[in-house]
Write a structure and sequence with these properties.
360 residues, alpha/beta, Rossmann fold, Rna Polymerase Sigma Factor, Chain: A, 2 domains, six-stranded parallel sheet, binds magnesium ion
Length: 360
């Protein structure tokens, strides 16, 4: 029986984590449920999981949330997820990490603190779960290269003129994955794929030169690892987040979860180069990742502010990248070895982004 603390229980990953729990009540026990602010949803979940500790973010108590758990599923969205990840590590709990911002913004701190306390960080992101599976669940498996697949999002074939006119509603129509609004827009800009390269860099200790990407519109191949002899091992399956969520909790054991892939029914799988020239957010993410320090935190904070403005219909799609670029140019870079430095960079970048957005 695994005792689970679920942070971010009302979002897309949180909801699917609870689906996994419901499917295997004999294996999983929910000991705490934390959400952002949806008290009504939280109360309803409290009736279903009567002995769970319940809290909204403003009343979060780390000792009570993580005290009785074996694993903390960090599914909170955005920069806020980093403080939960660090609190879980400090409590000495294994982390099933769905919040990629924890590694994008605080990768150095998260990996250092986890190593110091012997805490394992298990990926929930589908690409990183695929890599973990291809590496036989071992971080010390020697590999040549990691390749992340990308669906390409809803605008894969759009021209620059078309991209200038797309709306939030268009961006939220993801072709293969059902996810929250923020990450769906990040998939449309390919910022999400840039985040995932940074995430892979921290999780698997790979230099950026050894992490590649390929567009794969069907989202059946979830990522690949290339080895010294030329062999590549990929993980395949229908796009269904319950699989990586469940595996993060049970690996190396596998339990029934999702329908088995019917390759003949799928018919064809396609692969093409990632069109970085039409999606500048991807290149900005790689630049920030290579620059290191607080640059990825600046990237993320400006991205969060810009996507919020785009979802509200206040700015055009290309202004997301422009806002991020502006913040990266304005906010001074510093080392990101301490949480306070990352938090300050986050605040400064939000201010820079808001100023930029206000002027649009
Ligand atoms: Mg992903």
């Amino acid at each position: 029986m695994q005792r689970i603390a679920l942070i971010g229980c009302t979002g897309s990953i949180g909801t699917q984590t609870l689906d996994v729990v419901r499917a295997h009540r004999d294996r999983f026990h929910v000991v705490s449920l934390v959400c952002g602010s949806d008290g009504a949803r939280l109360a309803a979940l409290g009736e279903e999981f009567p002995d769970a500790y319940l809290a909204t973010a403003d009343r979060f108590d780390a000792a009570r949330a993580f005290g009785g758990c074996d694993v903390a599923v960090i599914a909170a969205g955005g920069f806020a997820g980093l403080s939960y990840t660090l609190a879980a590590i400090e409590a000495g709990k294994r982390v099933a990490l769905a919040n990629k911002e924890s590694l994008v913004c605080g990768g150095e701190i998260v990996m250092r603190e986890a190593a110091k306390r012997g805490v394992e960080i298990v990926p929930v992101d589908s690409e990183h779960s695929a890599l973990f599976q291809a590496l036989s669940f071992r971080r010390d498996t020697p590999f040549e290269r990691l390749v992340l697949t990308a669906s390409g999002g809803p605008f894969l074939h759009a021209t620059e003129e078309e991209l200038a006119r797309v709306t939030a509603k268009d961006a939220l129509r993801h072709p293969t994955w059902r996810m929250g609004a923020k990450i769906t827009v990040d998939s449309a800009t390919l910022l999400n794929k840039g985040y995932e390269v940074i995430e892979a860099r921290w999780l698997y200790g790979a230099d950026f030169s050894r992490i590649g990407t390929v567009v794969h519109p069907e989202s059946i191949v979830h990522s690949l690892v290339y080895f010294a002899d030329g062999a590549a091992i990929a993980q395949l399956g229908y796009p269904d987040m319950r699989v990586p969520i469940q595996l993060a909790l049970t690996y190396p054991e596998r339990l029934p979860c999702a329908p088995q892939l019917d390759l003949a029914a799928v018919g064809a799988l396609h692969f093409l180069p990632l069109p970085a020239e039409r999606f500048p957010c991807f290149g900005l993410a790689l630049e920030a990742g290579r620059a290191g320090g607080t640059a990825p935190a600046v990237l993320n904070a400006a991205g969060e502010e810009a996507v919020r403005a785009f979802l509200a219909g206040r700015i055009a799609f290309p202004a997301i990248a422009e806002t991020i670029r502006d913040a990266l140019e304005r906010v001074p870079l510093s080392p990101a070895a301490e949480y306070a430095a990352v938090e300050e960079a986050d605040a400064r970048a939000r201010e820079a982004a808001r100023n930029h957005l206000y002027a649009i």
